[in-house]
Amino acid sequence: MMKLSEITKVYGNGALQVPVLHDINLTIEDGEFVAIMGPSGSGKSTLMNIIGFLDYATSGTYELNGEKIGKVKENKLARLRNEHIGFVFQQFFLLPRLNAQKNVESPLIYAGISKRERTERAKQMLEKVGLEDRMKHLPNQLSGGQKQRVAIARALVNQPSIILADEPTGALDSKTSQQIMQLLVQLNKEGKTVIIVTHEEEVAEYTNRIITLKDGRITDDRRKSL
Ligand code: ADP
Ligand code: MG
């Protein structure tokens, strides 16, 4: 469970302070599938970065599974990220010179896992996203949807309990977007907590809860009645 209490975020300092998040109170239970919506500049990515330990809140508290996370050192932040979070982004961020398998393996290299086990796990993850026949392809030999599948396989390779996807379908056509959302639905059914940012209503429809941000505040938080 994630619990954010009175979270604020201010970028910059002195006269150049930019307040971006105000008084965010939000609890997300394990296994939820959540969409964060709202206009450009409303603070969606900032909130995702705080939830995913890519950035700190300026004030407020963040509890993950009952553990309060304060201003910890970068190496602790990195450990929390690696242990709990898989990230997916609109622009995929695959390493262009590495094939699909090596891209998926890359987080495991830093974890000091043997080559043999890395290969085995990358293969399993690529099978899971339906790309077992594209292991040796380079990113530029793959379609947009296939690249996003590789990115999702990479996000899964550390076995995180939380998947954070910032506009995962933003660069994809509508049919491919649906396929990516179906994959995220499947991962959620398998028990992952999935949080996505999206601008598109039809993408948000796949989730069970829609949170709306406006000017750095939560203005709506709606669970789908099942
Ligand atoms: P969204 O994802 O909803 O479009 P962001 O969280 O990216 O919004 O940005 C919210 C606001 O914070 C914007 O006004 C943006 O310009 C500002 N912002 C984002 N990142 C930084 C930064 N590193 N330094 C200063 N301002 C930033
Ligand atoms: Mg954004």
Automatic annotation (TrEMBL):
GO MF assignments: ATP binding
SMART domains in the cross-refs: AAA
Keyword set, alphabetical order: ATP-binding, Nucleotide-binding, Transport
Residue ranges of domain ABC transporter in the record: 2-226
Record family assignment: Belongs to the ABC transporter superfamily.
Protein's name in the database: ABC transport system ATP-binding protein
